[in-house]
Amino acid sequence: MPLSPDDVAHVAMLARLGLSEEERHRIGLQLDVILEHISALERADISDIPETAQVGNLVNVWRDDEPAPSLSQQEALVNAPDTDGEYFKVGAIQE
Amino acid sequence: MTTQTVGLGVDSAYEAVIGLEVHAQLLTRSKMFCSCSAAYTNAPANGNCCPVCLGMPGVLPVMNRQAVEMTVRTALALDCEIPAFTKFDRKNYFYPDLPKGYQISQYDLPMSLRGHLDFTVNEERARCGITRVHLEEDTGTMHHAGDVLQEATSSLVDLNRSGVPLMEIVSEPDLRSADAAREYLVRLRQLLMYIGVNDGNLEQGSLRCDANVSVRKFGVSELGTKVEVKNMNSFRAVHRAIDFEIARQVAVLEQGGALLQETRGWVETRAATVSQRSKEMAHDYRYFPEPDLPPLQLGRELVERIRSELPELPEARAARLAEQYGLSTYDAALLTASREDADAYEELVDAGVSAKVAANWQMGDVAALANQHHRSLVDSGVGVVGLATLLRLLEDGTINGPTAKELLAELYEHGGDAALLVRERGLGQVSDRAALTVIVDEVIAANAQACEDFRGGKAQALGRLVGQVMKAAGGRAEPALVNSLLRERLSA
Amino acid sequence: MSCAGATAAEMAASLRAGQTTPRQLLDHARAQLSRLDGRLNAFLAHTDDLADRQCERAAGMLADDPAGAGPLCGIPIALKDVLCLAGYPTTAGSRILEDFRPPYTATAVQRLLDAGAVPVGKTNCDEFAMGSSTENSAFGAVGNPWDVERVPGGSSGGSAAAVASGMVPISYGTDTGGSIRQPAALTGVVGFKPTYGRVSRYGLIAFASSLDQIGPFAQTVEDAAVAYVAVAGHDPRDSTSVPDPVDDPVSALQLGVDGIRLGIPREYMGAGLEPGVRDRVSEAIAVLEGLGASIEEVSLPSTDLGLSTYYIIAPAECSSNLARYDGVRFGRRVERPSLTETLLRTRGEGFGPEVERRVMLGTYALSSGYYDAYYRRAQKVRTLIAREFDSVFERVDALVCPTSPKVAFTMGTIQDPLEMYLNDALTIPVNLAGLPGISLPCGLSRELPVGLQVIAPRLRDARVFQVARAYEQATQWHALRAPMVASA
Ligand SMILES: [Mg+2]
Ligand SMILES: [Zn+2]
């Protein structure tokens, strides 16, 4: 089933991708083709097959609760587009 | 509107259904997935962060074992089951205080399931089911320029708190009143502090509580429309907010209205819950297994080891203390309110102070001083050992009550050795019969009117005379002896 | 010696014989780079001051203890620009990270620095490693040294081109669905993707966390083995890093293939293969048989589901991994009056079309109501694919097949995303199962390189090198240089 323009807009909003209408249209068509191909998975017999989220059989990988020095405030902020010298600065939240 | 207890009267046609979601920061030394300090308030803004908790590209989480163990400890204290297999998942959403754009949390296979917490509400025993206890990471914090969020022109982001281990304790919707919800929270907080996993600070948000509140007509089994109430940062706020919300929902239904499934925030200054209607299309968190963290298999051995390390829990301890030391249920509960208090009490008794004296002093003068100085007994100048010494001096008659009281106040603030002070200052009580008789005779001679009154049947006149004798004896006279000497001489 | 095109092993020998110095090797690398990179665009940044410092360091190490200095000491290398290098620009080929300088160095890179390797620069790649042609870089496409009008493959196209053009003997890339092996095949060099978990991902800008692995490009299998060993091994900063000791691929190089059982997966030799690719690979199989390997046709029936599985799992993970690019703490930000608008524009303008496509696809596959149909199903098929490899490896020691169904194509000729994705059909299953795989040159088709792929069971990385080295020794394809290099 092809994606409706609303579906595409909804997914773009979930992903916080600001796309133009033209981009949404194009991506929508491309996703339709890709999803059509992906529907091949429906052929697979996966009854009783467990899911693989990661390969390897590692479990209980953890570290001891030892603190270590952090970055300085200046190091933390150095890559930020906007700060007030102490905080990361962002625009108004309008919910 | 002052103390609002609108709630539901006994004759109400409605029943409230409440479940609490409690988030508790764990008292680990380092953060959940990086080695930054978990004591995040000690640094300047964004001075307690590393590439991992800043969510920088290419860096990876590494689990804090202690946080896992503390969560298991909590789950066991709440009688939860610990499944053999658990994993972390990503909860995806965008917010400036969430650096990675996802929170590492647990979704379908949490660390523990199906427990319960018992408590007493309005003198009745109650039990609330625990749905799950899981582990996740805290977010950073935001400061908004201007105090009204909607009118702020910019916001400031501090990521010092980002990545602090956070335990989420979800209850079943078993609570039926604001009283029950508050009592559940009081007991849960006490438990978390008892087992040393959380500092219990609701005001500063290291313990946070959200409530899911709905109402339904009595006898109806389906749940009503659920409203999530947030932003309650004291027991009082929890109580008031839930009461308000119940009344609001009943009012809406009574007026034939329909309730909206929504999130509402408690606004203290308005004494009301206010819709936070985030138009954000019904949250779609797109949970999926965290590929950067292998799952956990907490074997029996680990779980049993943690279980064996659990301290005696508050309810059991109160019961034992009542039984062992002949305390009233009320006193036992008070003395076990915190693990520190209960430990102090048992230490006093073990040090030879009688159970009754230890209880009276701890609940009386010590509690008052702790309040006055914002300093617990353990952290005070006198300490538990010093208090034991002092109370033994009292009990063996070396000093009298008023002297003990004065000394305690001094030692609590400034510290020192009680026995030494008593010797140096000659505070030992005077029990020398001959010496006291001289003073008693002098007081009788100088207070003819009071003697007359006493002999005339006014018993309270004796108190005045006792006071005079004590004063003349520098406060150190043994009160019982003074009493009996006075009676003796006056009736002679 | 002539340095352009020399192998790292040759350079290391010359260094120890006192015939050259790290400085001279660096100068040669820089000369080749400035001569050719105008046409190739393989590098996004030069790390000149770091290279100079590493030269000094390497010279010191060689002087102090020539035997103890490792095989990469003093050797010029190049790093894909998804590998973080503290204080240097690290863009992942994306506008959104144009000015980003990480305050940390990837574990793999740190190991190279500690070994005395000399990084000359950061190489171009598809944006966030998403692509099969390096045309998706925000900073321009990379030319194939065999024909600059053609693509070098991707996403590690810059690293492949840097080795294929003789600028450096060794470079590093990352492989999520074939991003080392496919460009190695298309540029006629060796490219190795280790067992998942063998090389730490700490400091590797994530595309798809459960699939990404760092690995080397080199001109010979021996160089690739040495380059792999230099970065392999457990890292406590990557929880998915394998703690077992690394089996030694260098000593495995001499073992040969006599008595080795090699499987030829039927599904990898089927439709879609360019005839020249099929012929070269068949010839290579015959060579291996001649060396004493037993050859057996095997079947991996779910192979054709690999692409679909991958194009759910990788986008799903990437949609989450790329959520951190919000213009708050780092990266480019496009300011708008409201926070949400700022976020939308920052990401809309910061990401290129392929990244947007995959973020959209992954977001959709995880979204409410579609998770079971897409993501969960893909995870189950992933299990199926891994199990098929497991059962085949009960009968054979390694698999031999083509790396890419086609040789390098002309830039701009593949516009359809799905058609582009098909380039990775033969490499993707290896990532899904977390296996080690190598691509090495096995001749030409239409005068362009063809890659032979060798795949082994998990943690049997050494066996991949063993088979590849046996083939390489029996043939001369690895000595064939791109015309651009020969005309030096
Ligand atoms: Mg939570
Ligand atoms: Zn940190």
List keywords for this structure.
heterotrimer, B: about 500 residues, alpha+beta, Arc Repressor Mutant, subunit A, 3 domains, eight-stranded mixed sheet, three-stranded antiparallel sheet, elongated, C: about 500 residues, alpha/beta, Amidase signature (AS) enzymes, eleven-stranded mixed sheet, 11 strands, binds magnesium ion, binds zinc ion
Task: Write structural notes for this entry.
Chain B: It catalyses: L-glutamyl-tRNA(Gln) + L-glutamine + ATP + H2O = L-glutaminyl-tRNA(Gln) + L-glutamate + ADP + phosphate + H(+); L-aspartyl-tRNA(Asn) + L-glutamine + ATP + H2O = L-asparaginyl-tRNA(Asn) + L-glutamate + ADP + phosphate + 2 H(+). The complex is a heterotrimer of chains A (95), B (492) and C (488). With 95 residues, chain A is mainly α. In chain A, 35% of the residues lie in helices and 6% in strands. Chain A has a domain at 5-43: Orthogonal Bundle (Histone, subunit A), CATH 1.10.20. Chain A is built from three helices and two strands; from the N terminus they run ααβαβ. In chain A, helix 1 (5-14) crosses helix 2. The two termini of chain A are 33 Å apart. In chain B, strands 5-6-9-1-10-11-12-13 form an eight-stranded mixed beta sheet. Chain B has a three-stranded antiparallel beta sheet with strand order 4-3-14, with no helix packed on it. With 488 residues, chain C is α/β, with parallel strands linked by helices. The chains are: A mainly alpha (95), B alpha+beta (492), C alpha/beta (488). At the A-C interface, helix 1, helix 2 and strand 2 of A face helix 10, helix 11, helix 12, helix 13 and helix 14 of C. The complex binds magnesium ion and zinc ion. Magnesium ion (MG) is lined by residues 105, 136, 168 of chain B.
Termini separation of chain A comes to 33 Å
In total, how many beta strands of chain B?
14
User: What fraction, in percent, of the residue positions of chain B are helical?
Assistant: 25-40%
Note the beta-strand portion of chain B. Answer: 15-25%
Assembly annotation: heterotrimer
Protein name (chain C): Glutamyl-tRNA(Gln) amidotransferase subunit A
GO molecular function, one term (chain C): ATP binding
Subunit structure (chain C): Heterotrimer of A, B and C subunits.
Family (chain C): Belongs to the amidase family. GatA subfamily.
